[in-house]
Amino acid sequence: DAKTTQPPSMDCAEGRAANLPCNHSTISGNEYVYWYRQIHSQGPQYIIHGLKNNETNEMASLIITEDRKSSTLILPHATLRDTAVYYCIVRRNYGGSQGNLIFGKGTKLSVKP
Amino acid sequence: EPEVTQTPSHQVTQMGQEVILRCVPISNHLYFYWYRQILGQKVEFLVSFYNNEISEKSEIFDDQFSVERPDGSNFTLKIRSTKLEDSAMYFCASSQDRASYEQYFGPGTRLTVT
Description:
The structure holds two protein chains of two kinds.
Chain A: E1 9-13, E2 18-23, E3 31-38, E4 45-50, E5 55-56, E6 61-64, E7 70-75, E8 84-92, E9 107-112
Parallel strand pairs in A: 1-9
Antiparallel strand pairs in A: 2-7, 3-4, 3-8, 5-6, 6-7, 8-9
Chain B: E1 5-7, E2 10-13, E3 19-24, E4 31-37, E5 43-50, E6 53-57, E7 65-68, E8 75-79, E9 88-95, E10 104-105, E11 109-113
């Protein structure tokens, strides 16, 4: 089972920041936090990942709390094309990780004009 | 940008028939995966494949399923005798290595078993 908890749905106004929370209170020290999204039954798409430091790339920012028990994905200027289901996943990267992703139900983000 | 491709996009088959779903992973990737998503449900891991053998498989991946990399480019998922409950979207993914940060997913094959 997924080790994360996310709200089932969220709305965001176009052009505003979308902040998607994720709880992962049982995360282990060697587990990373990953975010993927799935736009309308397409294949999931990688967004960002992090271990304990905040991360930013061209798509999003990832803020991880100091105790690593929760994180927030931030889409700084949401567009209609960001409407999708967003998945928060914890996964080991090294030392025996089998690599498969365990998806939960995710958060359905609806960006509205 | 390189991408994972899958064929066919939609496959309709009768219960009990064999189906083969095809995937072309990104060319320099070494790890390959199949996932499935029943309509309205979660994406579920089926199997991972590396160096011409299965690395890991889930409980879903029973004896009715098999995977193969018949040549240097294709990666296939075979279901020997399809059941109604096999109806789902099947996604192929690939990554550069097992520890790779990113898995690249294909667009999926919608399998409908009647």
